[in-house]
Structure formats: C-alpha cells, structure tokens
Amino acid sequence: MPQEPEPERDDARAARRQQFAEAARAERPDLALLCLLIGAEADPALDEAGRDAAQIELDRLAGLLPYAPAGGPGAWARNLAELLGTRCGFGGSPADYRRLESSLLHEVLRRRRGLPILLSVVWMEVARRAGAPVYGVALPGHFVVGFGDPAGSHVLADPFAGGRPLTGEDAELLVAGATGEPLSAQMMTPADPLEIVLRMLNNIRAWAQARPEHSAVQLWALELSLLLPSHPARLRHERAQLLVQRGEFLAGAAELEEYARVVEAVDAAAALAIRRQAAAARAMLN
Description:
The protein is of the alpha+beta class. It contains twelve helices and five strands. Residues 75-202 form the Protein SirB1 N-terminal domain.
C-alpha cells in the first residue's frame, strides 16, 4: 500500500495542481491525464516520465485490439473482455476496496486490480484509442462501460468482473443492490470525464475518511475536487472542518468564515452555525 507521500516542494505540488486545473478546464478533458495527476498526489514519485509510461501502456494495449471488428458493439465488448479480462487479468474483488492503489490509475495498470471505476477507465481509454464507440456508465455503487449508441443499439460490460456482459436485468439488480431504487434512464446517461474524476476523488475521500491516520489523503482529494470547474459547495465546508481536525485551527476557521459568507445568502441560520464553528476553532488556540 502506498504510504503517506514524502514531503515535496511546494512549487512542485503547485505546478502539478495547476496542470490538473488546466486539464479539467480543457475543451476535451484528457481523462487518463487527470487520473494520473491524481495518482501523483498519492505518489509524488510518479513524475512526468512515469505518467507518460502509463499512457504508453494504454497505447500498447489498444494496439493489441483488432480494428473495427465485425459484429458491432457486441464484438468490441467481447474483444475487450478477451484482451483485458482474460489475457491481461484485469479485474477486481472485495479486497480491492480496502486499498488506496485501487483508485490510482498507474497502480491499476501495474497490479491489474482496481475498483470498478478505475478498471472502467482502463477499458474506456484502451477502447477509445482503438476506435471503439465506448462510454462510461455511472451506475450507483458500480461503474460499468457501454459500447455503441447509448440511445440505440448498445451493450454493457462489467470490467470489475473481467468484462462480464450485462443485460438490462443485471443493471437493474446492481442498482437495486446499491440503492434499493429502480434503474432509471438518467442512470444510463454516459458519464463525462469530469463526473468520472469527481467520483474517483469521492472514493478516495471516503477511503481516507474511514482511516483518520490518512487525513492528508483526504485533504488532497478534497483540494483536487475543489479545482474542478463544477463541484458540490459542501466540499469547502468539509475541507474547513478537516483542517480543524488536523490542528490547523486558524486556517480552518478562515475557511469556515469564507464558507459562511457563501451560505448566508441562502440560509442565514446555517451561516450563523458555521461562524460558531469558526469561533470554536479559534478558541482551541487559547
């Protein structure tokens, strides 16, 4: 398991985060690049050469696929399952949910194990490079991939299960198991790259939140989330609270007061409660 990252120069971190912010605001965000920049937050040793090597590996895998196979979306799904699931051994198990590496693209490429969303990113990036009509499907609790026309003829596959094809009934069972709710058409809408990145960062935050010794991981996951053009406003509150928990009382109090100013326009009572949290944080210095 990756350890807490070694201290790195502030300018190196700032440059990498600027690259992340710029990539997130590109007209066509590069999903693989964004994922690899997340990996570099967890492992600063993943430098530009290491990130390039991961992109080259995705290119190599794509080169092993036949071009435009006869049989349409189903053939693409079968070829990806045979290459990535069977020959290369990409897949997942419940144990992978306990490892931070399962949320880091370069580690998933190395270990060939990961969470459903990271394995789906591998499938999508390999398939896209080979010319496949591929997209991500952010089902609640279990990310999968689709091939073909989302509004027409398409097939679904589960990279976590080695590329197992999914019927509509299978997708309904996955959603019901995760939420207890029925499958809706909105759940089947292709996920855009920034939605995928935010969901990945949410997974990392949840992993770290359950392990207080890894609060630094939770902090950088929050800070990257806040660099995305669209993110839940509550993440600013979560970051402020985390700073206080980490003993950074003044910084946390300042963040709380800034968030209270944002909230005040819509909920004066909530803003007052947040200001009280800020005062309590400052009082911890006395």
